[in-house]
Amino acid sequence: MTEKVLINARWVVPVEPAGAVLERHAVAVRDGRIEAVLPRAEAEQRFADYARVELPGHALIPGLVNAHTHAAMSLMRGLADDLPLMRWLEDHIWPAEAKHVSAQFVKDGTLLACAEMLRGGVTCMNDMYFFPEAALEAALQAGMRASLGLIVIEFPSAYASDPDNYLAQGLALRDRWREHPLVSFCLAPHAPYTVSDASFRKVAQLCAELELPVHVHVHETRDEIERSLKEHGVRPLQRLAGLGLLGPNLIAVHSVHLAPEEVALLARHGCSVAHCPSSNLKLASGFAPVAALLGAGVNVALGTDGAASNNRLDLFEEMRLAALVAKAASGNAVAMPAHVALRAATLGGAIAIGAQDRIGSIVAGKAADLAAVALDDLSLQPVYDVVSHLVYACGRENVTDVWVAGERVLRDRTLTRLDLADLQGRAVLWQTKILN
Length: 436
Hints:
It is built from 15 helices and 16 strands. The protein is an alpha/beta fold. The strands form 3 sheets. The chain has an 8-stranded mixed beta sheet, with helices on one face. Helix 9 (260-268) links the parallel strand 10 and strand 11 (272-275). Helix 3 crosses helix 15 (420-435), helix 12 packs across helix 13 and helix 13 packs across helix 14 (386-393). The longest helix has 17 residues, at 103-119.
C-alpha cells in the first residue's frame, strides 16, 4: 500500500456537504486516511512529494456501502427464481442451505461476492449469514470492509444448534476481531417470523450493553404482517417496539409495508431503513414508502439483498431503481433526487452500521474508501450534472479504481488481491455439488 498518494480527479463528489461537486480537485491520502480535499493547483504545491494517481475523466466518490446482503448466497444466484418470498425460502433456499452450507461454502461464496462488489465500487458490506467468521476471512482476503451479522434464528443449522449457541459463537467472534480496522459487527436476528420474543429480548439487552446495531428483516411482505397479527396480536414493528428494539441502532431491512404511524415511529426512534428495491421487486414484496421515510427524516440506506434474490450485487442499479421507484410510487418526481440516492448508497449505509465517523463521505480524517467512476465514455456524453450521471446513466462497468483504507484493491478494472480464474473454478465446483 502506498502510504502517501495524491488522487487528482476531474470531479470529486464528497457527499458531505450534500449536493457538492468539486471540479478539478484532489484527495490527499496518507496512511490509509484522507488527509485533505482541496483544489488541484493547491494540492500540487502542498503535497509535491506524494505519488500521483491521475483521473482526468473521472468522478471520485466515497466507496459504496451495501447496507444489507447475504454475500455467500452468490453461490445460489439463479437457483430458484420467479417465486414469492416464502415459497422461495421454504421450498428451495432453506433446503439447499440445510444440505450445503458450511464454512467453506460461506468463504467461497463471500469471496465471489466481494469480487463482484469491489468491481462495482462497493467497499463495505453489511452481511447477515451463517458462519460469519468464514465471511470475515473472505472479506479480509479481498481487502474489503465488512460489518458482520451475529445471526440469531430459532432453528438449528450446520453452524449452531439453538439461539443461545448462535449468540455465543457470534460474540466470541466479535471478541477476537473487534479491534481490526476493517471489521465491525451487528446483532442479526433474522426476522420476526423466525425469532422468538425471548431471543429478541436477549438481542435488545446485548444491543444496550455492547452498543451494537441490530440488523433485522421487518415488514417485508403482507404475509409476514398477517402472521404476526395471528400469532402475536400486533404488527411486527409494534412487537419489536414492545421488546425494546427500536432506537438509533436498529437497521430495519426492507420495511416495505409501513403504515403512516409506523413511518413516524421509525423516525421518532432514529431508526435506519435498509432499502432493497431490486429484491422487493423480484419477490413481488411491494414498493417501500421511501418518499414518506425521507420526508419524515428516517435515514435510508441501500442494500442489494443476496444474489439469490436480486440477482446482482450492484449498488449502481440499486441507486437508479430506488430513485425511479420512489418517484413512481409517490407520484412525486422529486421524491428521491440523485444526490439523495447517492447519499443512501454511501453515507446512509455508514450511518446505519454506526460507521459514519469512519466512512461514507470524502472528508479529511475519514478512511480512504474511494471509488473512481469514468465519465468519459461516449455513452455518457455530455456531462451536465455529475451526480445525475452517477445515478441515472452510469453502471458498475464504469468503475475503474477502488481504494479501501488507502489500499488500491481495484486498479484499472483489475482486482489486485483476488484471482478471477480461481473464483470461477470455485463457483463451478459448488454449482456441481448443488445440482447433484
